[in-house]
Specification:
By secondary structure, the chain is an all-alpha fold. About 70% of the residues lie in helices and about 0% in strands. Helix 3 crosses helix 6 and helix 4 crosses helix 5. It is elongated and about 60 Å long.
């Protein structure tokens, strides 16, 4: 009963209330629709630098890690994004396209939510 009264008071004072279960469902949907959700923070950072056109050496210098570490991150990114080796495709470019599409969807979603 106390929760209900607190919620009622918050709404009466101009606030809003969102059901925690709804928030959880929305976050789950976003993760399911976001191909980058499978990546670690560091892998997303590496992929972002790849999208800036940086080489593995350039990424390594920027992150203060070895080139070998960057190569491991890139392999993990390609694996997690299910980008298989193929003679006709450049996997690194496909990963960057996936990154840019995800960023665009996120940006468009935030614009739609605010407007």
């Amino acid at each position: 009963m106390d929760d209900f009264l607190e919620t009622l008071e918050r709404v009466a004072n101009g606030g809003s209330v969102v059901d925690p279960a709804l928030v959880e469902d929305l976050v789950a949907v976003r993760r399911r629709d976001d191909p980058l959700a499978v990546l670690s923070d560091r892998e997303r950072e590496v992929l972002g630098l790849m999208a800036e056109g940086r080489s593995n050496v350039g990424i390594a210098r920027r992150l203060w890690v070895t080139e070998g570490t960057v190569e491991k991150h890139v392999r993990a990114i390609l694996t997690k994004l299910n980008i298989a080796e193929a003679d006709d495709d450049h996997r690194r470019v496909l990963a960057v396209i996936t990154f840019l599409q995800a960023c665009l969807r996120l940006r468009l979603g935030s614009i739609a939510a605010s407007g």
